[in-house]
Amino acid sequence: MLWNKKNKYSELPFDKEAELEDAVNKVKEVLFGEKRIYLDDKKKIGEKGKTNNLPDGYLIDLTDSQDPKIFVVENDLASHQHLKHIAVQILEFSLSFESSKVKVKNVIKEMLQSRPKELEKLKSFAQKNKYENVDYLLESIIHKKESFNALLIIDELSDELETVLISKFKFPVEVITLKRYQNSSDEILYEFEPFLYEIDEDTKKIEISDIDTIVVPAHEDTFKETFVEQNCWYAIPLNSSMIPKIKYIAAYQVAPISAITHIAEVKKIEQWEDTSKYILHFSEPAKKIDEVKLQSSNKAPQGPRYSSKERIFEANTLDDLF
């Protein structure tokens, strides 16, 4: 329930997948942000006689000028779909995508032709970042190595499903949960966290293409025992599409120290036990650095934050980073 003194909103579950898809379209500008393009036409991909699939849409992510991406989108209701079905569906999308990249590019170009506003946004990005044209931009995104990314939009995410999405796939799978609420006047509210919201927040002072470091808050006892003595840090929630960028990990020691004090090179990132979190193994013991102190209390990391090693070394306070 969502409540204030004027209104009470009770959850209004989605009965059909089409209702969820309609909700995604209603909130897409806020859900995805201005640097992403959502295309929701259902177009079959895959090779004739082999695996064929019908994704619910595509999301073109232009936030990283050095590495634009395309996410294949699947909308599902947790109550209607078995965990196995969702996992298999995403796997089949990856197989169809990899086997028919030319078809995928043509499908996306066809969708863009009926969306002049979105096509113009893509043209502007291509021109600004020195791609010859939209066709060449799409070609470079789709045909690069490990180009498949998946986005699951679901009304409820169980711990079991979240763990499966991490453990079973070698490609990135991002997840958005979207819920719907209604009051007695039939007014609707939607509950969601915007796509890669925490990354968008961290890139207000740094280009996403420059990110190479994850900053983690650490208490004194676990910092010494794990970060320093075991040369690792675990149970970290990470966005799967950001993992390839992470080359370093920096430790922010909480009060009374209240500063980033150490940094280590990351050797390997693995799933942490049977969970939806990760463990980062260091290449060598963490090195002490000039402290980057907390100046404004609202800047203290409450969870993992993205930055760069170079920016951390240049910073005087956390205000310079976040």
Please report which band the strand proportion falls in: under 5%, 5-15%, 15-25%, 25-35%, 35-45% or over 45%. 25-35%
Terminal CA distance reads 33 Å
Low-confidence stretches: none
What do the pLDDT scores average to?
92
Structural class: alpha+beta
Please indicate the count of domains: 2
Biggest sheet layout? 7 strands, mixed
Share of helix, binned: 25-40%
Tell me, what's the shape? globular
Rg estimate, integer Å: 21 Å
Determine the number of helices (DSSP H or I, runs of at least 4 residues).
9
> Total number of β-strand segments?
18
Written as H for each helix and E for each strand, in order along the chain, the element string is EEHEEEEEHHHHEHEEEHEHEEEEEEH
SSE layout and pairings?
Layout: E1 2-3, E2 8-11, H1 17-32, E3 36-39, E4 45-46, E5 52-53, E6 57-61, E7 69-76, H2 83-99, H3 101-113, H4 116-128, H5 134-142, E8 149-154, H6 159-167, E9 173-177, E10 179-182, E11 188-191, H7 197-202, E12 213-218, H8 220-228, E13 232-236, E14 248-253, E15 259-271, E16 278-282, E17 287-293, E18 305-307, H9 309-314
Helix pairs in contact: 3-5
